[in-house]
Amino acid sequence: MPKVLLFMKGPFSQFHQSHFTLGGHAYICAEQYMHEQKARLFGDVAMAERILKSDSPHEHKLMGGRVSGFDQEKWDANKVRIVTDGTRAKFSQNPGLRRRLLDTGDAILAEANPKDYIWGIGLAEDDPAALDPANWQGENLLGQILMAVRIDLTSTSSA
Fold first, then answer.
1. E strands of the chain, at which residues?
2. Range of the domain at 122
């Protein structure tokens, strides 16, 4: 079985402070980028600006949950692209974080969040079942995105 690297916090978390710029805006973490882009996707420019002004990932998440005009189907069609763009910027613009991601080699990366069945695996880091992907109860979208970005960064490193 391939090595599984579980995370809940730290450099692979969306909440991890990691300054980057994208689309002419400066962000303090990938969580901020995701929710600011979510607000823009639904035309809630005022909320997007509030998210940009906040320096708290927890506030970003709360504000992202209050975006007006939210449509689940539209979000589902765009969320992976948005989070991939933010994740790529985060790791490509921060050499230390880039190295941390590349150092994971071919490990399966998994967000061990017992309350998140979309971005995470729906299991806690200390749950022995979390080490076997067959036991996962969530989609692990963040882990999948991190692994895709790792492949992209590996190919640009060796180019």
1. 4-7, 20-22, 25-27, 108-111
2. 4-157
